[in-house]
Glutamate--tRNA ligase (Candidatus Lucifugimonas marina), 503 residues
Amino acid sequence: MTNPTSPVRVRYAPSPTGIPHIGNIRTALFCWVLAQQTEGQFIVRIEDTDRSRYDADAEKAIFESLEWLGLGLDEGPGKGGNYGPYVQSERQQTYIDAAHRLIESGHAYFDDTTPEQLHALRERQRAAKQPPRYDGRGRHRSPEEIEESRKAGLPITVRLKVPDHGSVSFVDAVRGKITFELKELDDFVILKSDEMPTYHLAHILDDQAMGITHVIRGDEWISSTPRHLLIHQALGIEPPEYVHVPLILGKDKAKLSKRHGATSALEYRDLGFLPDAVFNFMCLLGWSPGDDTEVMAREEIVKRFSIDRINDSPATFDSEKLEWMNGVYIRNMSEDDLITQLLPFMERSEAEGGLPDSVARPIDRDYLKQVIPLVHERLKLLTEGTETLDFFFADNVNPAAEDLPGRKMDAEMTERALVAALELCKDVSPFEPEHLEAEYRALAEKIEMKPGQLFSPIRVATTGKSFAPPLFDTMAAIGQERCVERIDNAIGILRSAAATSAD
Ligand code: GLU
């Protein structure tokens, strides 16, 4: 199917029963992109008719995820619009009315079969090795019998009459024509005994009432689509275009689940991913622009997105690729933007992955601006800001004695290197990268060590790490006084370790 040229009305219709899965949000994203491309509307509708599974936190997470990913809605809860309410539990009467209309037109009927009877039926079918299905017994109940059951407090549902022969077909925009034989289907419930509709009935009425042109949803719904077509027929309305998007699998080809790591957009936010990178990455889960381009700005995706390039086979979630892409986005950010994004992570408490609690908050933004260029290229996640930059902010670093020696250095040689380094550090001026480098190279020659041997312990002494940004830029940013303190401190650490081992 080529892309619609007139404005679409598309909806993201999550059920607030759990934190939205990345695959679920991916459908929201496709909807949003198509709405932007055609200058149509992106509508959010909360499908909360299963009251027993309603979860307020899930509903909150849905809106937070959309906001974080920048998927602004045109209509929906909290936003309003001409087709509200956009919460199904507030539309209950329209579903009840429609179910009753379908009974009157002979397409549906009240059923008083009890859960126990249904269970017994299923058991019999299982024993006879038949597929479990409702046997249509309610079709033969008279209004009087139903009334009696109602008075007796039995649960009454409404079921749609499914013809026992023939077929229904539809053209899926991704998979093409799909046909289902009706003899495979039983009469299914459209209104439950609590007078709440099932998903099947509710979403069709709402899509119709809200003028939805394209239903973009996960392909797990394909098998329910014949039911939806039958409801449309019974109501005498035209179905929308169906766009069933493929499942998302982990790299091991199993359905993406907790086992594979984070599965919700908000987890990715908390892990230090940028919304633009996640947006870009998620668009490529089941869609491709037709060439090898992977890194695409939102505007480019909106321009290039096309329904006919949605894949009909499952997408693979490659978390390493996501991390790589996040690194690309970080590298492409201005320093100021990066700082703005990093600060909230670095300012969290130490226990939550922020800088040591001893570092005063708010963090000195000007100083961060000075040191950011030293690490900008290397960052892949916003959460890495803390461990990559902590030594610039901490009062002190306390490396372990065994981390101080460089390659092929013993404790004695390391101490000699650090003592010489300390003396130079106290006097060297100006304390600037190029000058420091020249002076320390000369020092290495003087004390007959390879430059790398001298620099290693200095790096660990001043940063606490064996891998850190370029040494002399780092020392200059740490400042002369703190470098002196740290090298001195490291000598102390070495000496006390030597004393302990000599005891
Ligand atoms: N409430 C359904 C879900 O969360 C919506 C499916 C659809 O988009 O029609 O899966």
About this structure: The CA atoms of residues 112 and 149 lie 7 Å apart. The longest helix spans residues 480-502. The chain has a mean pLDDT of 95.
